[in-house]
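Good morning C.,

I know you're traveling, so I'll keep this short. The sequence:
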Amino acid sequence: MGEWSEYFEDFPEEDQANYVNGRFDPLGARAQRDAQQKAAHKLKRDQQQLDAEIASIVQKHKKTN
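The tokens, ready to paste straight into the viewer:
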């Protein structure tokens, strides 16, 4: 018996990841996953920039003894 990925290559309609809103749409599902991944990367990048800005502000206002 082969791997699950081989089964889904032969029977893509059996892969739940190929459904969007209960409808078989492998291209739409791929586009949706790509958009989610892109949004997650943007969120991570934005958060890193905000963290750097916060650290800069804290350092600027830190009391020196």
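Safe travels,
E.
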